[in-house]
Amino acid sequence: MNRSPLFCDVALAERIERAEAELMSAAAEAARLRRGDDAAFVTRVAGGVATFAEDDSPFNKIAGLGFAGVPDAAVLDRIERAFAERGAAVQAEVAHLADPAVGVLLTERGYRLVSFENVLGLALEGTYERMAPPGIEVRVCRDDEFDTWLDVVADGFAHPDDQGVPSHEEFPRQALANAERDFAAAGVVHYIALRDGTVAGGGSLRIVDGVAQLTGAATAPEHRRRGVQTALLSARLADAAAAGCDIAAVTTQPASKSQQNVQRRGFDLLYTRAVLVKQVASSEASTPPAASAAGHAARTVHGPGAEAPDDVRVVPYDGAREQLRPLFELAEDSPTQLASYIEDGRVLVALRGTTAIGHLQLVATDRDGTFEIKNMAVREDLQRTGVGGRLVRCAIDLVSREKGNRLLVATAAADIGNLRFYQRQGFRMRTIERDAFTARTGYEPGIRVDGIELRDRVWLDRPLASSQSSP
User: Fold this and answer.
1) Angstrom distances, CA of residue 47 to CA of 59, 154, 186, 467
2) 458, 419 in Cβ contact below 8 A?
3) Sheet order of strands, 428-433 included
4) Using CA atoms, how far apart are residues 189 and 131, in angstroms rounded to an integer?
């Protein structure tokens, strides 16, 4: 029997977008309760919702706009200030079936198109049988299996398929772990897939107002092309139909393997979301320390952000290191120490036009597969615009392509802002090296950072794994 494609009108798009907005709202509220502070917020805006959970969270966005009028400028002002106070850009996801005036308003306010997402749907009629190839079992994840579930899903998200348009987003593992825990508190159910008794993949499902939201799913690389995703999808659809849902929805990257997989199961492309981003500078200018405190540690410079990095590119640097000395000196207080390593390793530079506005020095270590960020800085007037994060992501990509498995960085224990920055990039604290910054090692006595004496060094690391994902 031939099946007619599912037609998506404005009413259906509004229904799915409302479900998405409510999911973001519930997850951000769960993050607020988990953290016990005022970092997270939920603000209603023109039928949609602006949410912030914590640094680097996938819940930091505006969702569901365009189906209840055009946002009020004063409300958008308040939302943008709230994101700026948290050092985050504003990301708005707008369906192409929404009021076109919303896109006009956002672009006039400085939002720039960075990506697209496809929303696909399946009409759920009757009952659905669970289908799984021999040896594959799919069931709801138990509480004591969550860490295992997270490992396989995070592993899958880290290196998606090359097919289609790449995602513009990348989340540190800890941020992803927190998000999935908040998802669970918001009513998302996690499913685990086992192949011959080994955890092979995972996925999620949330049911609201008859809509089955199929959230991110992934399969471990060694278990791909074995029917794991088909089994995960089948189980969730069967449970959604049994719960009375009449529509299942999933979001994918355009032309991705994920989209191909769900279309093979009967999903139809319903609409596309435009992803628009505005970089906003904090109104609270902070004063850079009188002396930098990284020493041997890599650091970013803390000051007011002035521009967005939309025209910034990161490239390998093969010129004379002396030309970059002013940047190196932002991250190194000891001339003796700087002289000992300035020529080591490789350097990436962030360029605006032909001007170097930031750099990152990457060196090999004596451990196979382990590299170290030795020195990093961003020009003082351009910090907090994303340049530092872009440099780190490029370094991670470079090390991963060279089969590296770990990235190290060290910073001063006194530099709280720097510790925060690297943890936001997915690094975790590893060891503390006491009395690393002394006259014996080339540092003048009495250096303080934010009122804290410069003495100890903190080592952080970030494991690098290879993987792939599909819904």
Assistant:
1) 17, 32, 20, 37
2) yes
3) 312-317, 346-352, 355-364, 370-378, 406-412, 457-463, 428-433
4) 19
Summary mean pLDDT of the chain: 86
Q: How far apart are CA 382 and CA 300, in angstroms?
A: 10
pLDDT value, residue 383: 84
Nearest to 307 by CA among 375, 377, 378: 378
Q: Indicate whether 470 pLDDT > 70.
A: no
Q: How many residues does the chain have?
A: 471
Q: Which residues pair with 94 in a beta bridge?
A: 274
In the prediction, which pLDDT does 372 show?
A: 96
- Range 244-255 average pLDDT: 95
pLDDT tier for residue 75 given thresholds of 50, 70 and 90: very high
pLDDT digits (tens, 9 = 90+) for 156-207: 766 555 565 666 667 777 888 889 889 989 999 999 999 999 999 999 999 9
Distance CA 179, CA 53 (A): 8
Residue type, 392: V
The per-residue pLDDT for 67 is 95
Distance (Å, rounded) from C-alpha 179 to C-alpha 185? 10
Average pLDDT of the residues in 30-41: 90
The rounded distance, in Å, linking the Cα atoms of 338 and 336 is 5
At residue 88, φ and ψ (nearest 5 deg) are -120, 150
Q: Count CB neighbours of 326 within 10 A.
A: 12
In the block, tokens 């899903």 appear at: 153
- Confidence band of 466 (pLDDT split at 50, 70, 90): very low
